User: What shape does this take?
Amino acid sequence: MSIIGGYYSFGRDKRDTQEIYDCVKQYRCLSNERRDDDEVIVYEHPCGHLFAKRKTGIRSLVSACRDKQQNLFVSLGFLTQHDWQDWDFEQGVLKPQEHYPDDYADRLTRAEGQFSAVYVNNRSRALHLVNDRFGARPLYYSVMDDGFYFCSNLFFLTQFCGRPIELDPIGMLQMYLFSNTEGPYTHLKHFERLSPATHLTVGNGTIQQRSYWTMKFEPDFGLDPKAHAEATFSQLQKSVRLCARLSPRTLLPLSGGLDSRIIAACLPEDADIPAATMALQEPFFDTQYAVASQVAQALQLQHSAHTIHPVISQNAEALIRLVGGLCGLQHSVKSAQGPFDRYDLFLDGGPGGVPVGSYVSHMYLTLPRNKHDRLLRNYTLDGRLEHLRMLFDLDFLNNIIMPFRKTGERLLEQIEGETAAEIITIWKMIYRQPAFTYAQTPHSHPYGTSVYPHLGYGYVDLLLKVPPLWLFNKRFYKFMIYHCAPNLRHIPYANTGELLSGRIGKARAPMIDYKLYALKRRMGVAFRKFIPRRTGTAESAGDIFLVQSDKALLAELRDMLMESPGMRDYFNVSFCVDYLNRFEAGGDVPKIAFSPDHPVGFLAAILYTCRYTDML
Assistant: This one.
């Protein structure tokens, strides 16, 4: 598997090097994972050890080096400080240096890429952790009495540091409400995630963290939309070209949406990268596959379908070992079923629409008033307490409500923005994406990994100049695709069925436009009362199928709930069991979440995490 980690002993009481090697060597995520192709590296330093593990012949993007002065460097992902002249594209690693300068950790904060890097200065005996601007390679850590432990794989970290495992109430509630934990939180107490754009230093008896970059919109209301679209598209092309060079065995996962479509449009003509649509059984995703086929045909890409099966119960332990149970298992099981036997690098469409406004669904969010209300409402739990009291134990919930609300306030203080549109977009980029998109199975998978062309620094820098009104309904993004990929104009957006119009509107709008929008919205709500309610998207129907068809999964969840007395400290067990029974039978279930599969996937993540960390 692809993994980096280590520890720093506060008392300099180091563990045995061979013990570390054996521990890393023996760890497996997949039951059928081969053992003869592991490459394990263990470096000893004055206060502990660093380790890395990768598969030979696989572009795992793991780099490791010890220089002549015994300074150590280990990284997961790809990065450059010299316009990619220091990256070895043939080997898929950062080129080793004969001597790392004393300020190398500070230089890493100026690097570009998608990485978590570890540097140990032998002279100062300081340990440095640095990640990229967006936290694209999650790194987890735990501070104990005897030392600081860290690893790119959360589940392995729980075993490596040896501390007792407990569920974290705030992380659990975040997972249920938002599908992921937020900020530094995980669902395990005393285990945190390194925040994006962070330089963490351990040494001289202290642990210091500083943020070296802040995501902030600086809108230019005088932008020429077409010129800015062309410049932004050019930067995305540059990022796609770079990612396409990282491995000769690269695949483009292609859906009917916009994010993978624009990556396909940016591929170099000589890249020879095939596309594949991850599909469930019909009728789920049939529209996605049909639209993806049109995109592939228009761009002359080789295209195929790859079937995803409802096998959560069969792969539960592997999913926990890969992802740590940090999100609903109906999401993790999809990314775990990629064609890792043929490809070792995937050009992922995430975060795609997030920095261009996929969460800016209301025009009023682009105004500079009430800019904090939307996000704070999520943490005040207004309108949700009734549902939460059904699922969770009342004492558990009552004890956590106030700390949970204060958590939202603290997280919001770290975000700068003049409008709710900007704040929501930044929130989703720095809190949701590292905990959901980037933490999925390819992050630790032994035979493949994902990279994210939409995270190119030059591309995002130009997006941060977009006026808030162009974030609404992804106006600028759709405008850019229409004008810069003209051969795709005739292909509808599968999520809505619409054709891109090529219109963007003004960078600023008079108040009358907002009032007309609000009137139109209210009229739409009134008319929808007389129209049959939609049952949800094809994707949500597919997620329901993944859990509802897995009878063994539902049976195991019921057993774990009823046979584990400790679960009654967290959940209303009788309600949860009744919900699972009704869900399995295909009948109506209490509407306690945005989709009926969500409580099931959440329970699966928590309960299997407890099983495989010996909490049950």
User: Anything to note?
Assistant: The two ends are 27 Å apart (CA to CA). Residues 319 and 332 are 7 Å apart (CA to CA). The mean pLDDT is 93.
